[in-house]
Fold:
Amino acid sequence: MLCRFQKVEALTDSLDTYIDAAAAALGLAIDPAWKPAVRANLETSLRLARQVDEFPLPDETEPASVFSA
Structure:
C-alpha cells in the first residue's frame, strides 16, 4: 500500500506524463517554466471534478430543462 507521499508523487508523475502526452497530441509546445502552473491548474480541475462526481444524487434526479438567472 502506498503512503500519502508516494500517492502524491505517483500522481505528480502521471500528471506530468499526461501533460506531455496531451501537449504532443495537440501539437502544443509547453515551456518548461510553465509546466508547474499547468500541473497546478490540472490538479485543481481534477480536485473540483472529484467533488462534483462524489456528490450524492437520488436516482430520480432529472436535469433541469430550463435555466434562468
